[in-house]
Design a protein that fits this description.
It contains ten helices and 13 strands. It is α/β, with parallel strands linked by helices and about 325 residues long. The protein has one domain: Peroxisomal Thiolase, Chain A, domain 1, CATH 3.40.47. The chain has a five-stranded mixed beta sheet with strand order 1-7-6-4-5, sandwiched between helices. Strands 8-13-12-11 form a four-stranded mixed beta sheet. It has a two-stranded antiparallel sheet with strand order 2-3. β4, α4 and β5 form a beta-alpha-beta unit. The chain is globular, with a radius of gyration of 19 Å.
């Protein structure tokens, strides 16, 4: 299938990226800091994960606050006003409240009183799921301009005595502005999205609490080797499907921006798909795993340092608890 002739063009609209923004809490927690907290070493953390430091939200600094700052920066980068947004989707597993949604808190903070705002929960795959969902809204013609946000305060879910998990995660937020525009051959926009879920794997990566089960927030629990095996071995299907639908391949792809969970997972996934190492954007060393925020944080870094340029073909990809996984190809 030739590029520009994929299923997303049937309505005559595509979802084009207008801008990107990100926000990280001021506090950083280094591997050296963690050595003083749990029985671990910086050498072990770097060798197993590639992580050197992560950002931690301050007391009273909520997920919606992080998301609002990222949204403001994305709007500024796009050169559009908050009032022009009629759709907000916030991907998060760490909402401010059980309800109302974090997206509505961001909507209010931005002074937006129209349109629709809601949260989407697919854990680390959340941003890919949110991009796919926003794309369908925009291509349907029901909405014109969207803020797609990934925002997390995973530090609030961690058991800081569990050395196998507390070294992995950090806090942060990233956002993009999408706009419905006429689709043209070789034009910019979301070319394809593919999502998958398999709920049989809950025990491999989950939080052991919730309103309906324990009445508590709970802590994150993970069987690392099983997550690694799935992330590398089972998610190629959505990436290959996205390649096929958008008419591109590893050779024509400009940038691969995966979920930033673990440097070893990122490298193994790129190698499996034949994506050259120099095309891979990696920010995990300085951000840690920020779940749904990791891809937009990485996009922001790569746009601002000049790697991702208008016209470039970008693939985003993630796997998260559940399991959930997804991929999308975007012409920037």
């Amino acid at each position: 299938m030739a590029e520009g002739a994929n299923n997303n063009d049937k309505t005559g609209l595509r979802s084009a990226v207008l801008g990107v923004g990100a926000y990280l809490p001021a506090k950083t927690l280094t591997n050296a800091d963690l050595e003083k907290m749990v029985d671990t070493t910086s050498e072990w953390i770097v060798q197993r994960t590639g992580i050197q430091e992560r950002h931690i939200a301050a007391e009273g600094e909520t997920t919606s606050m992080l998301g609002t700052e990222a949204a403001k920066r994305a709007l500024a980068n796009a050169g559009v006003e908050a009032a022009s947004i009629d759709l907000i989707i916030c991907a998060t597993s760490t909402p401010d409240y059980t309800f109302p949604s974090t997206a509505t808190q961001i909507q209010a903070a931005l002074g937006i009183t129209h349109g629709v705002a809601f949260d989407l929960q697919a854990v680390c795959s959340g941003f890919v799921f949110a991009v796919s969902t926003a794309d369908k809204f925009l291509r349907s013609g029901s909405h014109k301009r969207a803020l797609v946000i990934g925002a997390e305060t995973f530090s609030r879910l961690l058991d800081w005595e569990d050395r196998t998990t507390c070294v992995l995660f950090g806090d942060g937020a990233g956002a993009i502005v999408l706009e419905a525009q006429p689709a043209v051959a070789d034009g910019r926009g979301v070319l394809s999205t593919h999502l998958r879920s398999d709920g049989r794997h809950r025990q491999k990566l989950f939080v052991d609490g919730g309103p309906s089960s324990t009445g508590t927030v709970g802590h994150l629990r993970m069987i690392g080797k099983d997550v690694f095996r799935h992330a590398v071995g089972q998610v190629a299907d959505v990436m290959l499907d996205s390649f096929a639908e958008s008419g591109v391949d590893a050779a024509t792809l400009d940038w691969f921006v995966p979920h930033q969970a673990n440097a070893r997972i990122i490298d193994a996934s790129a190698e499996k798909l034949g994506i050259a190492p120099e095309k891979v954007v990696k920010t995990v060393a300085l951000h840690g795993n920020t779940s749904a925020a990791s891809i937009p944080l990485a996009l922001d870094v790569a746009v601002r340092d000049g790697r991702i340029k208008p016209g470039h073909l970008v693939m985003i990809e993630a796997v998260g608890g559940g399991f959930t996984w997804g991929a999308a190809v975007i012409r920037w």
